[in-house]
Amino acid sequence: MLKKNRPTPPSIQTNALRTTVGGTTAYAFQGASTRNQPSPKQHAAQPPSFAPPSATTPREQTLQQQDEQKERTLPCNFMLLDRVDALRVAGGAEQHPPYKVTPWRMRERMKTVQVAIVMCLNIGTDPPDVVKTPPYARDECWIDPLSLPPQKAIERIGQALQSQYERWQARARYKQCLDPTVEDIKKLCLGLRRNARDERVLFHYNGHGVPRPTQNGEIWVFNKDFTQYIPLSVYELQRWIGNPAIYVFDCSCASLLLPLFHSFMDHQDAMFKDQVERNNQAHQKDSDNGGGSGSSGGSGNNNNSSSNSNSNNKRDSSNVDVDQATARIRDCIVLCATSATGTLPTNPDFPADIFTACLTTPIKIALRWFMKRNPLSTHHVSASMLDSIPGRVSGRKTPLGELNWVFTAITDTIAWNVLSRAQFQRLFRQDLLVASLFRNFLLADRIMRSVNCPPVSWPRLPPTCQHPLWDAWDLVAETCLSQLPGMIMASSPDGVHHKNKNVQSPGKIRSSSVSWQPCIFFKQHCILAYNIFS
Question: What b/e readout covers 411-442, taking b as 16+ CB neighbours within 10 angstroms?
């Protein structure tokens, strides 16, 4: 038992309020409001203290009066109002300052409003630096170009690629340029930038029918008679398209073009800074001449001070404009199918434009790649069945939509884990089409590395092909493929799958709830997250 006349420690005196409820005495710790000396009520209720009095300043007295006023108005309670003060009273260490939460949604959103599809195929004539040994990959946009006349084949391929891009950005305006000349591309690019204004432009180049890019940063097009290959400098291409822009180069040795992109951005940045410096010098001369001719006296001093404040405000706004303009000059994204010395794979199990297939039809190429890697577990599924997966990409309650939903969640999580926050927000949150392309680029990195042809991007991304979340995607893909024959048989009238032609188009097939069991990917990960954070 404690003696009644035992003094209470000073730390408890200043932060404890003694009350009597039902004959029981209790102390209620107060928060930051009781940092100073206790109120007179507390002095009357507490035992006498032997702590020496401390000198108080006028500011401390004012704070003490405010604290006493709060104690009169607030009811007595037994809850800890301030956890930091409670830990300090109990003798514990102070907590670190709270973590600064930064917004994850970008305010500066951007759209890709113009898309150029440039196809240099020259069907029927192979380029001189390419030697094809049968069997080799032939499909372009999942179409065999040799099954149709050359002109109809390239038109159909161009239309198929446009429809594949429209799945990710339906509101953009698309322009096709099939087997073009230099003048055709120049006219196309200038028109796209004029219509896009300050928004982003996408330039997709397929160079499977022309030679590889040169060391000088040149891609190849045709002349009007299709008798010669004409080089087109990427420097000129950037000058026509401008920024912001995103480029997709599906050809061999595609990353040979990256140094020219860097030199062009450096050159434009240097020219812009020189122009800004000249403008600042001219403005400084004008301000000096104006200040020298000003009147003397008090009014002159007032005019000088106002002019100085105005000049400072203009200087600050000009610095902001310079930073925005510099960021705009650097706003260029490049996706290359191969390295500087790499060649496109010719595996007949995959299409010839495997890089484009990964970027525009990720679910189909991912399932086909999984089938080739796991023939034992997918022996009952044929490649033709992949076109008959019921549902739509936008419908999450359908098999195809669920696959796309899971794929989006997995690729976003991988990108969040390996990228910096600023880079993640720029590539995966600023533009819908750019975000879709970079999600699919992660898949391209995984698939094309398996055939010894790693893709390259600017800005650079770290390798993600060994990320453990890909195992979760493989499980979802295997679950879907195991149910695919049953879904197709349930949706066909005669209960038999036709290999040569589909009974119904994939968009019109009803999702059979009897034969399709939704995956438990999100349920499993929600339970795992709950177990981790609980």
Answer: bbebbeeebeeeebbbbbebbbbbbbbbbbbb
